[in-house]
Structures are given as C-alpha cells and as structure tokens.
C-alpha cells in the first residue's frame, strides 16, 4: 500500500470522525488513491474487521468500489443537495437505512484462510498462528522450537547410504509451517533437492531435503498446513546457523497422541479435603480416555487403599498430569503401559 492511499484514509477518517459502515468507508476515501487492490489488502490484513466479517467485505468489494466511485464523480459534478437527498430517501427502507447497505450473510473464512491472507499481505500472522490450535497436542510430542534448535550443536556428520535412516539418537522434531520452498538441481549429481524454512511461533529455521530423500518427500514439502518435521541438524561450519536435514514430514492434524493405558493417582489422606476430591473427580470425568484408572488412598506409615473406580477411564496426556499434580502434589500421577 502506498503512502498516498494511507494519507487518504487518515484524512477521511479525521474528517468524518470514523466510519459507520463499509460502504461509508469506501465512499469517503478518495478512490483515485485507494483502488480495489488496496481495499482487498486492507480486508485481508484485518484492518476493516470493525465494519464486517472479512468474507462479507470481500464479497461486496467490487460493488462497493463502483458505488463509491460513482458517488464521488457525482459529488464533483455537483449532483448533490436536494436531488441527492430525495434519491437517498427513496433508496431507504422503512427504518431509514439503505436496504442495499446490508452485507451478505456469507460464512466467514476459516482460520487457515484468514491467517494465510494476513501472511500474504503483511508477511506475518496477526490474529493468531496456525500452530495455536495444536498447542495441547504439541505438549504431548517431544518437539523443540526453532529458537532452541538454532542454538543446538549439530551432531558429527555420519555418511549413510541412500535409503538408510540416520541414527534415531541424532534426530529432533520441530513443528511449524513450511515457507519459501525452492527446488533446485544438484550440480554434482543432477538430482533434485529442496530448501525452505520452517516457521513456528518463535521464529524460523532453514530446512534442506537432500536428493537421497527428495523423491519420497517432494509432495509432502508442498503441504501448507502445520506439520511435524523430523530430521538431523547440520551446519556447513562452526560459524554457520544450523539447518534441519529433513527425514520425515507429517501434518499435525494426522498425528495421533499415544496415551498411557494405565494411570495410578496417589491421594495423601492427611492433606486431602472434600473440595480437593471433588476437583479431582471433575478433572477425571472431563478427560475420558483409554487409561485404566487406579486410585491409591495413602495414609503415611499406616495403610494404602487401592481403588479401581468402575466405569471411569482417563486420557492422561501431559496437560492432565500437570493439572492433577498441581492439585495433589509432584509425583502424584504415574502413567504406564
């Protein structure tokens, strides 16, 4: 967006003390300086969210610009005053509002489309991040963020044959969105390879897919939704920032968290209260899952009563364990197969 368009919007806002509708915004801003492309960029960036949903605004952008341009031409030609007032009166419904000012009842963009539109026009996300919806799932995966990975020292490089997997101990997993994909051809072998960046909520890290892996991963590299990438860090020298050599790519949506099949919860009777036990029951019933539930009621140095509540099972993911231990104390939950 150019400076002239920005100045025109600011001037119209100050002159009109804001805008009451999308139509008024378009009619009051000089359309010689704010064209349709600028208007669509404002919608995608969320700058006009106070005037309607983005899908609604985009659906009427053409008509709004045409109407605004005509209104501004009429104003310049002097076709306003009494006749313009009469025209506005006949255009109005019984409540005094223009019937064609209503925005269409268009379903709003989904989260992915909204965020991708922001990234398209601004270069970054504004109203959230594609990873936000997977925050709970990521807590249960052994992942590192891009900032942490960028500070890690790559392991010594070990030669491996085509199709041979790297040492699992050297692998790390990072979740994010693949951006800036570039495909090239190796000058040495003539085979295809790819470079890109993996972006998460704290930054980004360069990734590379070497020819020996490109054939099986080339389609996965085009995925636009959040993914989990496993690979090995490598650097050209000690001064270079590490890159992630890609070994596998999986959409986060497709990843299923493996939950423990058995969960033992220890309750110390000397510190237990009715309120605590009520909170524990609420927590358990709110997280049904595959884990067979066992509750140990312990009196230190005296006895332990072991219960297996009938009909109760639990999804003991990391979030559940943290909440339960916050209530009962560190080490109160044991999860096992």
Structure description:
The protein has helices at 3-16, 22-28, 36-45, 54-59, 61-77, 82-91, 111-122, 135-139, 146-151, 211-217, 274-285, 318-328; strands at residues 171-185, 192-199, 204-209, 227-234, 243-251, 262-268, 291-299, 303-307, 313-314, 333-336. It has a five-stranded mixed barrel with strand order 1-2-3-5-4. The chain is built from twelve helices and ten strands. A hairpin with a 3-residue loop joins strand 7 (291-299) and strand 8. It is an alpha+beta fold. The two termini are 57 Å apart. It folds into three domains: 3-111, no CATH class; 135-254, Beta Barrel (OB fold (Dihydrolipoamide Acetyltransferase, E2P)); 262-336, no CATH class.
- The gross shape turns out to be flat
The top-level CATH class of the largest domain is Mainly Beta
Rounded to the nearest angstrom, the distance between the terminal CA atoms is 57 Å
Rg, nearest Å: 29 Å
Mean pLDDT over the full residue set: 88
């Amino acid at each position: 967006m150019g400076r002239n368009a920005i100045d025109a919007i600011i001037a119209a806002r100050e002159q009109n003390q804001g805008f009451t509708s999308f139509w008024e915004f378009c009619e009051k801003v000089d359309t010689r300086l704010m064209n349709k492309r600028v208007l669509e960029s404002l919608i995608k960036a969320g700058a006009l969210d106070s005037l309607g949903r983005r899908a609604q605004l985009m659906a009427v952008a053409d008509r709004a610009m045409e109407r605004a341009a005509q209104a501004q031409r009429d104003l310049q030609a002097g076709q306003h005053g009494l006749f313009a007032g009469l025209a506005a009166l006949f255009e109005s419904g019984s409540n005094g509002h223009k019937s064609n000012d209503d925005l269409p009842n268009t379903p709003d963009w989904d989260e992915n489309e909204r965020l991708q539109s922001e990234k398209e026009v601004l270069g970054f996300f504004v109203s959230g991040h594609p990873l936000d919806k997977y925050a709970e799932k990521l807590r249960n995966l052994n992942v590192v963020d891009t900032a942490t990975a960028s500070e890690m020292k790559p392991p010594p490089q070990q030669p491996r044959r085509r199709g041979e997997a790297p040492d699992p101990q050297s692998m790390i997993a990072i979740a994010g969105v693949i951006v800036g994909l570039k495909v090239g051809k190796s000058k040495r072998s003539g085979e295809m390879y790819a470079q890109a960046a993996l972006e998460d909520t704290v930054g980004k890290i360069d990734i590379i897919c070497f020819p020996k892996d490109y054939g099986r991963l080339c389609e996965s590299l085009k995925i636009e939704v959040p993914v989990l990438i496993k690979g090995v860090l490598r650097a050209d020298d000690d001064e270079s920032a590490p890159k992630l050599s890609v070994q596998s790519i999986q959409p986060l949506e497709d990843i299923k968290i493996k939950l423990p099949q058995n969960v033992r919860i220890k309750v110390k009777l000397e510190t237990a209260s009715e309120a605590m036990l009520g909170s524990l029951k609420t927590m358990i019933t709110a997280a049904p899952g595959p884990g067979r539930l066992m509750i140990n009621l312990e009196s230190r140095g005296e006895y332990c009563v072991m219960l297996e509540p009938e009909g109760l099972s639990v999804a003991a993911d990391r979030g559940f364990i943290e909440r339960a231990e916050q209530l009962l104390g560190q080490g109160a939950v044991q999860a096992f197969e």
